[in-house]
Task: structure prediction
Amino acid sequence: MGNNLKQMDRGGNVSPGWMAALVFVILLAACPGASSVFAAAEDESLGIKLAKQAVRADKHWTTVDHSKIEILNQDFSSGDQITQACLSCHTDAAMQFEETIHWTWEVPSEKPGIMNGKAGHAVNNFCISGNAMEDKGCLSCHAGWDGTDGLVNCLSCHGGEKFPFKETFADLAAFAGDDDPDLQEIVTQLHADIQKAVKNITLPRRNNCGECHFKGGGGDGVKHGDLDTSLAKPNQNLDVHMAVDGADFTCTRCHTTVKHHIAGRLYTRPAAAERKSLIQDDMATKITCESCHSATPHKAATKMNDHTDKVACQSCHIPEFARVNPTKMWWDWTTAGKMKDGKPYVEKGEFGKPVYKSIKGSFTWAKNVVPQYFWYNGSFDNIGIKDDIDPQQIVEVSHPLGSPDDPNARIHPFKIHRGKQPYDKINKQLVAPLLSGPKGYWTTFDMDEAITLGNQTLDVPYSGEFDYVETTYAFPITHMVAPAGNSLGCIQCHTRDNSRLAGITGIYMPGRDKFAIVDTIGLIAVLGALAGVTLHGLGRFFTRNGREE
Amino acid sequence: MFKYIAIFFTLAIFTLGSLSAVYADEGPDGNSRKGKYTYRKVIKACHERGEVDSASPQVSPADKKRAEWKAIFENKNFSAFGCLPEWDALSDDDIMDIYAYFYATAADSPTPATCN
Result:
């Protein structure tokens, strides 16, 4: 047999060793996960080259030293005084900011008479509603000095240090007029501390944005899954863009701003109307991956560039979310209201996170969560407080829109937060219970009264009968971009069993799907080829490789 | 008869009111706002002396309940805080102010202290 193989080699045919090498090379070329092993030795991909070109070192510079601004050398006794000092130079800043959703918490819906946003008719399956800003518990994240009262608090986003202004001003007011020398010394020090904080002005840093966006839903990592305090100082493995040992982007590096409108807002409309690179338009927002990486970011010879018109970059490059801190995946309001010794209580579980709170119900948390994938064109379908629901079904409070036929749609990863929340049994609509304050649920533990008061804030009728319905809320996963070596391999999706894209319909995916005619033709072709090679080999063998003895 | 009932209820209300005034737990008689800053000064001085790493207090009123703080302050046992030279240098009024701060913002108070 060995002699025969040698004879075949000499006869010009390919040996099994060479065949294996050829298959290995083909697999390397086709599979980015494997080819990335050799990436260092090869030229960079177009996407990396363009991105490095677009975002070289941060060359930000300023002509203002706020420590030299005379109007800031005063003994401030209220937040509004600080804002007035800011506006004495930045004359239009508050006017601009008050036009944005960061201030109004409202944005018009496509539905007539409906406003989205925390102050509007939108609800979620966390704390459910902002009750038209009547729920004071939410207002700690409103960028004003005192909830909706008073002026814009410029330092929410531009303060270089976290300073307890509200508490300090309350203390100063309490100390006013007291001639205790110790107190006067304290007052002098407090004024100096306030001045120091007021003069420490910056472009928004990660902690400025993160103070609210890392803690959305009432705590660290509750809402988004790809936004939590681990992104305050992430390493390369967690986020290649924000890594302090890497590109070290602040949020505003991608979430660019025009007149205080910050790119990236998502309710029902897309965050970006157009997919443009900075080469096409240097004033384009940097909010999409294409802005810096182009629509063909991979190496020219790879198959991956053929995916970018159907698969979002995030689908492969964010293999899991909540990779450092856990995120909340389930919130069941039906269990809220239990007491121990007549008092509300908290139970903690895995990760040291609360799994039960009397004021909120039961929760589950998870880490290293594999996303769910849906077609997504940048828009969402939202169920608000005025929309009818079918309580026999799971209600998709927020769900991505898109289809295989939509040229703007890509297969995109999502966190799906599930839960049970109250709804109006007669009107068949979701409800907006008032939670905080003396008459809110967190004080009274009376859900019926909380719904009555909460719906009144939004001028929505309540029948007086409620029950609970299971709901879902979708969050697009777009932060926590992993290093290229950790991105998904082909086999994660192109496989018949446990494909990540098992739920994606309307397309034929090689490896995942079976199409009987194609498979039959393929099988016939393979068997035919095998039979041909076998017959050919046998023929040559029995004819002594075509040579005479 | 009505006269006796009225007298009985008046006396009952007066007695209950007096008892509640006597036994009501009003907390220590200090200036809690001032106590907050005096406490911070203690830790800052201690940090400058080199005993503790941080100039910001690491022990928060919300770490314990009111009864636990009461035991600590009434026994003047400040070992849980460290910084004993600084505590020894405080006047009784200063300690009462700090006690008022810890009592007012203890874990089981209506407004537990936050990290601010």
Notes: Chain A has a mean pLDDT of 87. Chain A touches chain B through ten residues (CB under 8 Å). Chain A has three domains: 66-306, 317-492, 514-549.
